[in-house]
Amino acid sequence: MVLTEDFTMSRTDEVHRITENVYKNIMEQFNPCLRNFIAMGKNYEKALSSVTFAAKGYFDALVRMGELASESQGSKDLGDVLFQMAEVHRQIQMQLEEMLKCFHNELLSELEKKVELDARYLTAALKKYQVEHKSKGESLEKCQGELKKLRRKSQGSKNPAKYGEKELQYVETISSKQSELDSFIAEGYKTALSEERRRYCFLVDRQCAVAKNSSAYHGKGKDLLTQKIPVWQQACSDPNKLPDRAMLLAQQMSSGSGTLLSSPLHSSKGNLVISDPIPGAQPLPVPPELAAFMGHQGRLMGPDGMSLVNGTTGVHGDDYWSEGGVSQGRPPSPQNQTQTQSQPQRQVSDVYSNTLPVRRPQPAKNKTTVGETRTLPRSSSMAAGLEKNGRSRVQAIFSHAAGDNSTLLSFTEGDIITLLVPEARDGWHYGENEKNKMRGWFPFSYTRVLPDSDSEKLRVNLHHGKSSSTGNLLEREDMSLPMPDYGLTARLLAQSLTQTRPRPYSMAGFAQPALEDYDSQFATR
C-alpha cells in the first residue's frame, strides 16, 4: 500500500513538472523565437518589395528597348518579342505582388497578433493550473494528516475499534482526492501539450497559405515562360535574317546600280538609315524655294564649267546663323592682311560648310572681286536638285577619314568619287573612290558635283597621275561668283532649311566647332 502510494505520488509529481515545463517553454522559448521569425519575415518582405520596385524599372527599360527595336529597319519583329517579354514578366511580377500581400496579411500580421495575445493568455493559464493544483494538493495533504493523527490515537487507545470506522472514511476521502488530483494533472498535461501543438499548427497553416500563393506564382510563371520561350528563341536564332521589306530594298538598289550589297548599311557610330523607297516613285519635285536655283544653273557654274561647293548659298545664307547683316568676306591671314587692305577687291575665299572642319586659307591674290559664300547646314534639298541633272561624279574638297567604321568611305582632298546611288539620304551619299576603288558612305557636303566637262578633264589628269586641288580650282582667273540676287529672300530660304533634316555628324570623329567659333571666323561688319 505504501509502495503503491509512493509510486503514484512520484508519477503525479513528474507529470506535474512536465506540464509546468510545457507552459514555460512556450513562454520562454517559443514566443521569443516567433517574434524573431516575424522580424525576419518583415525584413524578407521589405527585400522583396525592393526587388519588385527594381523589377519595374528593369522592365520599363526593356519596354524602351522594344520601342527602339520597333522603330528600327531590320529588327521590328524583335521589338515585338521584347514587348512580349516585358508583358509576360509584368504578369509574373503582378503574381509576385499578390504573393507578397498574402505573405504580409496571412502570415506576418496574424502571427504578430497571436504572439502579443499569447503572452498574457499563457501566463494566466499557467497561474490557474498552479493554483488549482496547489488547492487540490493541500486538500489531499490535509486528509492525509488527519488520517495520521487518527491512527496515532487508535494506537494509544484502549479501544482501537472505535477509530476503525472513522479511519476507513479518511482512507476513502484520501483516495478520492488523490484520484481527483491525478485527473486534474492529466487534464492539465493534455491542455498544455494542446496549447503547444496549436501554436505550431497555426504557424504551419499560415506557412501553407503562403506556400499556396507561392506555388501559384511559380506555376503561372512556368506556364507563361514555357509557352513563350520557344517562340522567342526562334525569333533570335538567325541574326543574319533580314525582314522582307529590307531585302526588297536591297535588291532594288542592287539591281538599280549593280554595286550595292544586299546587306543593310548602317554605321556603328551613328544612325544612318536609308529610307524605304516607294516602288515606281519619281524623283522629288524641286521645292519652290529652290526653283530659282534650278532656273539659274548657269549662275552656279564658273565660265570653265566648274561648279561651286555642294549646297552653297548666296549672301542670304548667313541669315540662317546670324540675326542680321550680310555675310562678309573672311579676314585674310595675318601675313597677307596689308596686301588685302590695299586692294579694293577681295580674293575668292575657300567655300565650305559651317558644319565641316576648318580648312586652311589659300594665299590672297589679286583676282576678280567675288563675295564669299557659305554652304547650307543641311544640304539634302540642294543635293537632290543637283543630282537631277544626271551628274554621277563628285570631287572631294575636304579630306574624310572613315576610322574603324567599315561602312564609311575615306578620301583625301581632290579625289574623284563615282556616285552609286541615285540620291543622297540625310546629307550622306554612297560612292566609289576612283583612286583606291573603295566604296562606302560619305558626307555629300564634303564634295562638289563635277559637270561633264570637268569630269573629262579630271579623268585625263588622273590618267597622268595628277589631280587638281580645290584651292587651285578656286583661284582660276575665269572663276566667277553666282549672281547676288537669286530671287529668294532670307526668310524663304530659312523656311526651306528648317524643313530639312540635319546632316549627321561625320563618323571620322571630327570635332564640331561651336557657333561662336564660326562667328569669329566669319566676322561681320
Automatic annotation (TrEMBL):
Gene3D superfamilies: Arfaptin homology (AH) domain/BAR domain (1.20.1270.60), SH3 Domains (2.30.30.40). Residues 389-452 form the SH3 domain. Residues 365-382 have a biased composition (Polar residues). It is a peripheral membrane protein. It is found in: Cell projection, Filopodium; Cell projection, Ruffle; Cytoplasm, Cytoskeleton; Membrane. GO terms for cellular component: cytoskeleton; cytosol; filopodium; membrane; nucleoplasm; ruffle. Residues 7-256 form the IMD domain. Residues 335-347 have a biased composition (Low complexity). It holds the Pfam family SH3_2. Its main location: other. Adapter protein that links membrane-bound small G-proteins to cytoplasmic effector proteins. Necessary for CDC42-mediated reorganization of the actin cytoskeleton and for RAC1-mediated membrane ruffling. Involved in the regulation of the actin cytoskeleton by WASF family members and the Arp2/3 complex. Plays a role in neurite growth. Acts syngeristically with ENAH to promote filipodia formation. Plays a role in the reorganization of the actin cytoskeleton in response to bacterial infection. Participates in actin bundling when associated with EPS8, promoting filopodial protrusions. This is BAR/IMD domain-containing adapter protein 2. The lineage of its organism: Eukaryota, Metazoa, Chordata, Craniata, Vertebrata.
